UniProtKB/TrEMBL annotation:
Name of the protein: C2H2-type domain-containing protein
BP terms from Gene Ontology: mRNA splicing, via spliceosome
Bias type Basic and acidic residues, positions: 32-55
Keywords assigned: Metal-binding, Nucleus, Zinc, Zinc-finger
Amino acid sequence: MANRDKVTSNGGGGGGHGGGAGGQGGVGPSRRTWDTEEYASKARSRESRGNRQQEREEELAALNAERRSQGLPPLKRLRSNLPEPTMAMQERSAPLELEKNQGKTLMVDYSNDGKGQQGPGFYCATCRKLLKDNLAYLDHINGRVHLARIGQSTHQDRATLEQVRAKLDELRAKASAQTNQSASLSYDFEARIKAIAQEQELERQKRKQAKREQRNRKKQQSRTIEHKQEQDEEQQDLMAAMGFGGFGSTKTR
């Protein structure tokens, strides 16, 4: 708390040293001292109250926009018993996995007790609110109302130098791991390409061998037919030389 001004009187009477006009005693010079920590605390408190007031105004504007979209009259003030934020906005620790049910229609119980009205959409159990799609759900969980219900504000803590350095080291390590993984995948890809080329070459050799064997079979069949024809011709010539005729029927009609 600020100290009071120190006042020094030189006594009464007209003959005193440093007397004021009319012989009255004057007030000497004083030096004011300030409690800097107290004023800094007050400034932080005013800033915090201003931020909360701004958040409430923005929350009221967002709520009225939603009410107008539903055909409801806007509110003049925020009728809410939301708790005061106890921490700044925190980074999400787990993925939302909104795409895991892509292409599916999920029926959600509004009352979350298995007996209430059901409807399709994304349900926020914290706010007991049903959102029609994933975009609306994402906007909701990043909004001021939802954050206030889980004790977070919309402001983020200023990162320290150590935190920035740690984050940069983490990003470098992640980038290095991705580079090594990409190099490994590239090597595996080249090996796979070589294996495919070898398989294709083996298939070509098999097809060539099959065609070669087919041609050899055709040649062998042709030689067999020619040899049989030659044997038949030789046999006919021999029978003709011996005076044998054909074995046709001799029956007269």
